[in-house]
Predict the 3D structure of the following.
Amino acid sequence: MRELRLVDVVASFALLGVGCSSGSFELGAAAAGDAAAGQDTLGGPETLAADDAGSSEGGADQGVEPGEGAVPGDAVVPVDAPVPCGAPSATATDVYVDRASGGAGLGNAACPFHSILEASALSWSPASGKRTIHVAAGAYSELNVIRLADHVVLAGAGPAALHVTGGGVCSGGIGNCVFELEGGAEAFGFTVDANGSNGVVTNASSAKPPLVHHAVVTGSTGATAGILVRGSADVGPQVSCTANAVGLHAIGTGNVHVLAPTAADTNAFSDNQTHGIHMEASAVLAFDGGELARNTVNGIRLAGITSSVQTISGAYVHENGAAGLFVSNAASASVRGSRFEGNRIGLVFTRTTANTLDLGTTAAPGHNVFGTKAGGSRNTVAGVCGYVVPANTTISAVGNLWSACVPTYVSVASCDVVPTSGYLDIIFAPAALAVLPLDTSGCVPPP
């Protein structure tokens, strides 16, 4: 037999979960009774010696069988040792959020915040460069507005994986919103359910527009919008504004740029209660590609008063309840490479002394589709309707596809009138105007 040392006893008790306090061992009631009887509770060689033969006589066999315990002196490492969180840093360029995390919310990769609001509330100076808030998959119901400052990027797990709702009172007296982006901010990789409020609100000058891309925005109602632009914003690619009161509503004085999608993605402003895109005040639209479909009223409504020409290109505008594109109230527009099908009227234009419509020139043909053969997906009433005031002006519409060459046309009292002859490529007012006010040279016949 070998004799156990005191250090062996300490290690053995530690492994068995026996407590140690103030340098004495908590040996239980039996040990305390032995001590009261004047016995040596730490024992001597005769009581604590392990029996080499494995004998249990007299209860003296306290040895540890091979493989059943640690060698005395070995470090004891808990099986589920927690990962150290470290300390949060006010200057961190990467901040993490994961609502499913069970650790302390410090915002680092080991112990992420549990809400997006915690991360967005951290102060940040643009002079420090870019800060990225990485948000893990999950459903997040935020208790206030998520405000993203200049040079702050929200990088979500993807529109299918990250769902955000909640929010609070937005700045500027426009009601509630879920996200509010300042100039120079960026947000992508999420779905917003606005739940009756504005989904995303942008505040910026044209010199530093915020950017929203690879996102879905839905659920605004009443006098709200999926994306409400105050000032300027860059939107897309892969932005979907669907099932809102208005898909995108611009009420400021800046520029809205809908970025061209790639072959692998698109932009969609569809299935909204009024318009897919509504431009008011003096905001200017540059639409570089995407779909505007099945909106109750118009695909795009340009109603602002601005001296700048608003450009539409690469648009697939179809099945909208009124006009695919409505240009009114002194707004000017240039349209290229766009397709208008299945709308009541493909394009409606109200001519004043202050605005213009360019559907194609000899130097830059339109390549727009306004009509198809009978039985195709052409518009219900007409491809184009123009209110032409003054009456002696001509709209340039060179190099477009109509249902026939020469396009069919007639003058009517207003664009609300359905011609008795049925579908026409072009209708125009006033009814007294006898000459077609569009230059449709370079007509492309339907295939």
User: Anything to note?
Assistant: The radius of gyration is 36 Å. The longest helix spans residues 6-15. The chain has a mean pLDDT of 83.
